Amino acid sequence: MAHVSAAERRPQLIRAAITVMRRDGVAAASTRAIAAELGIAQATVHYVYGAKDELYRAVIQQLTAEIAEQVRGIDIPPGPDFHAVIGAYARRLWRTVVEQPHVHQLIAELFVMGLRSPSLHPTITAYQRHLDAVFADAFREAAAYAGTTLALPAEEVARFFFAGLDGLILQRLARTDDLADERSLEQIVAATTALAEGRLPLSRSR
Q1: Which residue of 56, 112, 180, 206 lies most exposed, with the fewest beta carbons within 10 A?
Q2: pTM score, two decimals?
């Protein structure tokens, strides 16, 4: 059998781990199961990634990168309409939820598991910060494109938007209601636009 370097094996193991996690759940993704999925010895998994948490970290980072790529790859609609641009971001991401719910369920499972794991918790924190930064950049770009001056820092607007979207994703995973979901998505976009433009009443306590 031809030798496969660790560099070549890493993406293969990540894909195999994601396949097992999607199909059987995160708890079932032992190094033995991942090795069997790829048809290699279990020792190879430990050789390439050491402890199982190292591979889990790589999976989380891969899924984070895929979400970030989806945000960056959105085609901005023509015309200087800030609301329309934010709507395009929301609908593009929501399409992945509708078409690939198992991916978002996997992210949710990894997120919850990571919060309880001292070794994975920093990765979950980094995941959230990275997505916050990606969305903040997207809002800055949208505002510049539409000629809109943000009333609040882009990071704060992005956090508000992502919190609403994340909650809606969890609702979708629990039950499917296309009409209600579409209405909720538009409400999140409208509320985010109003917040960004300074039209949402806020009460700040110091």
Answers
A1: 206
A2: 0.82
From the list 99, 77, 73, 98, the residue with the least C-alpha distance to 88 is 77
Q: Which of 54-63, 70-79, 117-126 has the lowest mean pLDDT?
A: 70-79
Neighbours of 173 (CB within 10 A): 14
Residue 203 one-letter amino acid: S
Write out the two tokens for 21.
Answer: 């996690």
Burial of 172 (0-12, 13-18, 19+ CB in 10 A): buried
